[in-house]
Amino acid sequence: AGIPPQEALPNGILQGINSFGKLGYTGPCPPSGERPHRYVFRVFALNELIPIPHRCNRETLMEKITPYILSTGEIVGSYRRAVQRAG
């Protein structure tokens, strides 16, 4: 969070298209008053550095990296927005 949605970032960092169809990461933001939403964050260890196209989506990313995956990890969390009360 907090990284501006830009095409080119330092150290070769690339940002992909998120589930809202926009460039970059957006943090959890379920609608107010709903049950907690589940968020899954996955990391992949690859056996080599591979070229990834700019602005790719999840499907393209997975297609490109799958042959190079050595190991994976994930963390699952839940989040819900606090109810705002008047006064």
Would you mind describing this structure in some detail?
With 87 residues, the protein is mainly beta. 9% of the residues lie in helices and 24% in strands. It is built from one helix and two strands. The protein has one helix at 58-65; strands at residues 37-46, 69-79. A two-stranded antiparallel sheet has the order 1-2. The model has no long low-confidence stretch (mean pLDDT 87).
Summarize the structure.
The protein has 87 residues and is mainly beta. The protein contains 1 helix and 2 strands.
Strand order of the largest sheet: 1-2
Q: So what's the overall shape?
A: globular
Note the run of SSEs as H and E.
EHE
Helix % is under 10%
- The class by helix and strand makeup works out as mainly beta
Through-space gap between termini: 30 Å
Cα-based radius of gyration, to the nearest Å: 16 Å
Mean pLDDT score, rounded?
A: 87
Low-confidence stretches: none
What's the number of extended β-strand segments?
2
Percent strand = 15-25%
